[in-house]
Amino acid sequence: MASILAVDDSASMRQMVSFTLKGAGHQVTEAEDGQAALALAKAQKFDLVLSDVNMPRMDGISLAKELRSLPNFKFTPILMLTTEAGMNKKEEGKAAGATGWIVKPFNPEQLLATIKKVVG
Amino acid sequence: MSIDMEQFKATFVEESREGLDIMESALLEMQPGEADADTIDTIFRAAHSIKGGSATFGLENIANFTHVVETLLDQIRNGEREATDEAIALFLKSVDCIREMLAADRSSEDFDQTHIDHVKAELDNMLSPEDIAEATEQLTVSNETLNSASGWKIVFKPYPNMLRTGNDVVRMFRELDEMGEMTVEVNTDGLPPLSEMEAEAVYLSWQVILKGDVDRELIDDVFVWVEDDCELSITPLDQATADESTNDTLAPGQLAGAVQAVAEAEDRRASVDRRAGDRRKTAETSSIRVSIDKVDDLINMVGELVITQSMLSQLGDDFQMERVERLKDGLSELERNTRELQESVMRIRMLPISFAFNRFPRMVHDLSAKLGKKIELTMSGEQTDLDKTVMEKIGDPLVHLVRNSIDHGIETPEQRIAAGKDEVGNVHLNAYHQGGNIIIEISDDGAGLNRDKIYAKAVERGLIGENDELNDERVYELLFEAGFSTADVVSDVSGRGVGMDVVKRNIMALGGSVDVTSETGKGSTFRIRLPLTLAILDGQLIQVGEHVYIIPLVSIVESLQINKKQVNAIAGKAELYKLREDYLPIVRLYKTFDIAADNTELDGGLLVVVEGDGKKVGLLVDDLLGQQQVVIKSLETNYKKVDGLSGATILGDGTVALIVDVAGIIRLLKSDPTGPSNLSEEKQIVAA
Amino acid sequence: MSAAQDIAMELGHDVDSDGDQFLTFMLAGEEYGVDILRVQEIKGWDSVTPIPNTPDYIRGVINLRGTIVPIIDLRRRFALDAIEYGPMTVVIVLKVFDSSGDNSRVMGVVVDAVSDVYNVQEDALKPAPDFGGDVDVAFVQGLASVNESMVIMLDIDRLLNSDELALVSGLSE
User: Is the ipTM of this complex over 0.90?
Assistant: First the structure.
């Protein structure tokens, strides 16, 4: 049972992720872009951050960078939700401090399996 | 797809529609060659979201299609490709295609794929063949099918900063542990002296022996996130030689397949004809988004209603005459609550007219390009509210009027310059509330209506006499007469001969009206007036025999008492009333409705002059009762459409009153051989 | 409980799910029956607003709690002698389905009086011979014998969906 921050500008994606993770007993908080997510992160601690890369106002990579500078998020797993085409941003993501990635499209089972690996 | 996914898919489709609208607006704003970074980014992100989501929610065809669009946009974003006119046009076509695919998915109708394939082929074409290799979603294929039966030796040496990315060595070992029998040796050689150690760095390395029948791929997966942050070697326990045909890109067979697909697409393109006609299905959603505020207001109002009801109920339980004042107060409170509730609920169906206006930037863009004219579209009052159903029904008339302005109103750039105007013409859409109505104006700064041409055409069509004197206003009104079109060739653009008369009829069917003002050389303005809601109408109650009927106020021109001298009977059948210059057919409503009337004498009888379908007639009634707002109830729900009636309502006493459909009655008159069918014919008959 | 079951209870019957229950009514001395599940309510006769240009058996429409419902006079429909409506005259409000079975309408029929509720097994219905008389056989679902009298069971979907009523949905100009 982990507390997870899910960030994606697509409402349908957020809903799907939220529904899937909540179903497995996790606590999920949603944010629609990097800025909103950062504000939430400053206010509370999360066990895991799942974030889309392409978002308005603040993208996933900038978010990862900002999160790493927060004392509570130095080692928190941050997973980027990215498409195949976005894999070229892998290095950038890692450099910004992202833990890893989940490739879209993913189904709920794949999501849960990956989450389980990371938060147990 | 599981039930779980279906519910999100609907949200995704809605979201994608909005995304497509955003893409379209941004694309229209773009100047070719000049790529404003923010705009491109916006368009890219919209396409990216649609692609990602459609793959996730099982819409493979949309994912594949959008993928190419996204790749092209990404290239533009990175500066690798220029945003040419051609590209923008192609992206706009792609937006249409994706819309079609979304609509087809919702309606589960068979739809024509050829048109979409055609556009996809164009997109693929824009991406050169080498790019297609990247674009097709073939994952890296490692052909190392090595699968050692006994196990692996893994040497793992993370770089000192590996933990900074939140990766956890324990996690990785846990995963490995689950795969087989694991033994671990730790190597502390890398540890620096205590003074030099950083608390958050890792200096240890490990050697793991993993026994068991484990796929190499699974082990790779465990370390995939950190492969650049460590030294990693994975060797099989027994030294069987691996099949080292690793490919990082497409296997030769796969690349050939991709090229083949492009060739086929080109063939298809060569043989496919671009579809004519607008295949865009406006999926009229049967749902509305309502702001929480509106819902809260409603809840409050219902609360007040409940309180009032309870109070009245108490009064009723043990009523005494001295309480009558309180009863009256209670009733007036009830009236206030009900009215507020009604207004509030009506507002739920209201949406800003921007929803109807939004299709026009694109339409103006495409149409002006097609006609070789330069036209700028401006809008104001987009936030003006109107009823959702009215808005859906006003869409087509609006399109027709805007097309008309573009086609006939605005001149070509050369003509405009010659006339001393800016070569770019302007079409302006405006909307505002006035009384209980919404006014929509379509203005252009074009050539204006050609009075003489209209007059001449009307004479030619027999609508007016050669020497009739008419003021400008009356001449422009002729534009809306049936069978009137000044286009010498029925323009494909202005709706294939579907004329202004249909526009007017559709608007009147909504209980509205339309008129036009114009100044030669300066431009024209079409003004549409519509009621704010369809469910309620302002009606005049009339009595015919024992029954009460309702005539929509909007259709009533005037009411008068018949003067026998103004009545002309034709061959003892049709009856006409001379009202100033017009001859109006007299409709004996009791006959139309097949009921007994109190008064069948024309002289001194009450005549209600009404207008519908562009014509005027006089309705003979027994009495004029009050005017009130009535709620329109459908006859068709449980019965069927009846000619001459547009519905029914329930009066205060609970009885049903039928609502007269003025245009319908006039049409019935046309089909009745004893009645004359239009004004000019009447004139001829009377003159004879 | 459904309206139909209420009616059955009111008439003193146990609500029974075995077999079909039919509400029967009198019309010119004959007893007719309709599936009780189609009966929405039973009203007394009240005034009706006539609709122009309709067959004479369509008396007009009434207001049924805010909905406009057409009223059909079954005597006229079956070309029987018309009578004066009196305090016993009853309107049975029915739910009628169209041929696809998807769409339903509400309509009322005027009858002389309501009779009773009977349980009739589906297989106890005998097919109707051609009466050569009042009722077109197409409307008759079958004949039942109850307490030694004959009840004519009506197929109301057929009866109230016929061409003259032309219940065509959504075809407005």
Answer: no
